[in-house]
Structure prediction request, 226 residues.
Amino acid sequence: MFNNKSIIVLFIDRNRFQFYGANLSGIETLDVPQSSLRDLDVANRDALYTLIKQWVKQHALISVQLVLIFAETSYFEKVFSSVAPAQLETDIIKFFDEVPFESTITKVHDVPNGKRAVAINKALYEAVRQGFLLQGLSIKGVIPMFALGVLSDRRTLDAEVGEYVLKNIDTLLHQSLVDAQEVSVTHAKESSSQHPIFAKKSNLPILLGVFGVLLVIFLVMIFLFR
Prediction:
C-alpha cells in the first residue's frame, strides 16, 4: 500500500501535463510548448527540464512520487487476435518496428482471446522522468490509459479519474509499462554516478617534487664546476 498523500497522478497528453493528488488543491494543468515537445518527441530537453523545475518549485513539492498516465493520444497500441503463437509473435514484433520512434518502451498485455501490444517513446519517458528526478521527485509507474477500464475514454484528467488511480494504484501498477524494480535500478545507477566516492589522485605533487630535486642537483653541479 502507498501513502496517497505522497502520490501525484501525472496525465501526459501530447503537449499538456495535468496533475492531481498530494498537496494540490485540484487539477493542475501545465501546457508544454512545441519548442519543448513536438509530435510526442523531445524537441528541447533543457527547456523541458526548466519548465518542470519551475512548476515543482511553484507548488513546493517535496518527497512526492509520480504515477504517469499516458493518454490514448500519447502511445501506440494494437490488439491481436489469437493465432498460432509463432505468427502472433511475428505480428507483434512487426508492429513495434513500425512505431515511429528511434527507441521505445514496449509491453504486451493479455486480453480475452489475444494480446494487446503497447509502445511509448522511450526518449519522452526518460526526459520526463529525469526532469522530475532532478527536482527530487521519482516515478512509481507508467500506466497506459486503457488500464483504467470504463474511464479509459476520458480525454483529460478530472477528479474522478485522479481518485480512481489513487484508490486502485496497487492494481494499476501491475500494468505499468516500466517495472518498479527497473525504475529503482535506474535511479540507483544515476545516484552512484553523480556522487563518486573517490576522485582520481593528481600526479602533480610528485612531478613538482622530482623537478625540485633535479633543480637542486643542477645548481650543485654548477657550483662544483666553478
Notes: The chain has one domain: 4-194.
